[in-house]
Specification:
2 domains; mainly alpha; 3-stranded antiparallel β-sheet; globular
């Protein structure tokens, strides 16, 4: 009879170092989303394009390198040197809209492998909506300090998957691409380009603002937790990920700090986590007794 493999500790419980690395990566993602259009703007200005000279961002863009940027796209579809990296949700929507293509498989494969291995990490590490969510959380805190109550409606966990299936099915039946219209990373990337090149925001800005209001007054992180189709896609793909947050019960004092700090309604204190965990590591960094850590749990392993 084979002996079950035990979990392997991969974090050494350095939650604060993990947070620093995550924030650095998130900063790069946001900088890429906003800075890449400005870099292209600067490249056009060097070539003498009239549009660049008319932009209010042209002065700031002059501080960027004079060489053409090595990237195109961001944040859901990025061309880096010789290969493409495409968001799995965008790829699935394109396949349903235009039909299957092996080119789509090669572009989406790196992202799928990462999500299957690491879980729903994109939401906690790279999504450009995270600064908006942080602002919503700050607004909730400020309102509570002022004595103004805010609701925290808990929608069923299946809601996001219903939204995911609905967006894909309705889009394929109508023959239109709905994902870029409701998926925050795609919206923010498009609006950043529009703001830099045209000096204004489109209808997508209204959707981001609506998500901010929803997260602030109706449900804490409610859009990410219950309405985002991309979050649902990553949860499905990441459900087999061996990377888990594990609570060492002998060190836990049941202080509930880890549960309170989690945006997505997970419960690290009782080891009640599902594929909705975004591997942000906030619970690990906040644990006063260092009872929490990331572990690789192999099939048959026990935590």
């Amino acid at each position: 009879m084979k002996r079950a493999l035990q979990p392997f500790d991969i974090t050494l419980r350095h939650g604060k170092r993990y947070q620093a690395l995550r924030r650095l990566f998130l900063g790069f993602s946001v900088l890429l989303t906003v800075g890449l259009p400005m870099w292209h703007l600067h490249a056009l200005e060097i070539e003498g394009a009239g549009r660049a000279a008319d932009s209010r961002w042209s002065t700031l863009a002059r501080f960027l390198p004079d060489t053409p940027p090595p990237f195109f796209g961001a944040p859901t579809s990025v061309w880096v040197w010789f290969f493409d990296l495409v968001d799995p949700l965008e790829t699935l929507a394109t396949a349903l809209f235009r039909g299957f293509s092996w080119n789509l498989v090669w572009t989406v494969l790196p992202g799928v492998v990462l999500v299957v291995a690491l879980g729903r990490f994109f939401c906690g590490w790279a999504c450009p909506y995270l600064p908006v969510l942080a602002a919503a959380n700050a607004a909730r805190w400020l309102l509570s300090r002022l004595g103004i109550p805010t609701a925290d409606v808990k929608l069923p966990r299946v809601t996001s998957r219903v939204v995911l299936v609905g967006v894909l099915l309705v889009g394929s039946m109508l023959g239109v691409q709905l994902v870029p219209l409701v998926y925050p990373p795609a919206i923010i990337g498009r609006e950043a380009f529009r703001a830099v090149f045209y000096g204004s925001l489109g209808a997508g800005g209204l959707l981001v603002a609506a998500a901010f209001v929803f997260d602030t007054f109706v449900s804490r992180a409610g859009f990410c937790r219950s309405l985002c189709p991309g979050g649902a896609m990553f949860s499905v793909l990441g459900s087999v990920s061996p990377v888990r947050v594990v609570n060492e019960r002998s060190k836990c004092t049941d202080c509930t700090v880890c549960d309170v700090i989690c945006n997505l309604g997970q419960s690290p204190m009782t080891n009640a986590l599902d594929s909705g965990c975004e591997r942000c590591g906030k619970c690990i960094a906040s644990c006063p007794t260092k009872a929490l850590s990331f572990k690789i749990v192999f099939p048959g392993g026990k935590s």
